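Our consortium's second objective concerns turning raw sequence data into structural hypotheses that experimental partners can test. To show how far this objective has progressed, the report includes one record in full. It was chosen at random from the queue rather than selected for favorable results. The single chain below, 293 residues long, was entered without modification.
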Amino acid sequence: MLIGAHVSPAGGLARAVARGVERGCDSIQIFNQSPRMWRPTAYGPEDFSAFRQAIEESPLRAVLIHAVYLLNCASEDKEIRRKSLASLIQSLRVGDGIGAAGVVLHPGSAKTGDVGEAIARAGLVIVEALAESERCQLQLEDTAGAGGTLGRSFEELAALLDAAGAGARLGVCLDSCHLLASGYDIRTPQGLGETVDRFDRAVGLERLGSLHLNDSATPLGSNRDRHAGIGTGELGERSCAAFLSEPRFDGLPCVLETGAGGGAPDQDDVALARRLRRKGRAARAARRPRAGT
């Protein structure tokens, strides 16, 4: 598992690499522009080259881009869909330029409208965005389920993937906080295992491209997206350890988005995640039946 953190690219894309190294990360996640503004940051070939050189010279093994929060590919408003398309294309093209493992996208919201129609609208936007970029994977993130947000269940994620053409560049990012909030009981290794089984049946494990590890400030099935630092919320350290040590998650980027104090994750948060992974792996080994018993 490539444990890492969301970091800022302020001062230039290559600065994000330095911040990841400072935190002891194996992977990082960045916004390619301000998450609260439509205006894209004008990166060029020199920025991409500097980033690639910096990451090549670092221990980092993966980078994710998170699309900005303003996007709603499922909106009934044509202007919002147009802006969402332009921003998503920009994110994917930056991903192409820096060799990102994927762009993580909140699929959008139906608001109070028909969910099936919203999924179809989102699918059309995603198809066009992929056609206007080259290589970078697009990973749809599961949601906590508030309001009309899409992706609150594995079946909705599967429907979104189908609506977007189900091509090889489409994947999924699973967020631990969102899983719990949307009703998937991942608080025990058994519950997490059953949840991963359900994901495999509905979507397919081959689609799983990355993970977000966030604790949840709200309980199972709350449908509220309220992150907490790992070990400080409804999941707690034991459940976070189980998530970090799930064998089917091995090799995936796993990004912390929230630190213990509620702000950005720091070096201590990343170190805690590593300790919890070791504890989780040890606990799994202890539960494994011994030969001849």
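The partners drew two points from this record. Residues 78-98 form the longest helix (21 residues). The CA atoms of residues 39 and 239 lie 39 Å apart. Both points have been shared with the crystallography group to help prioritize constructs.
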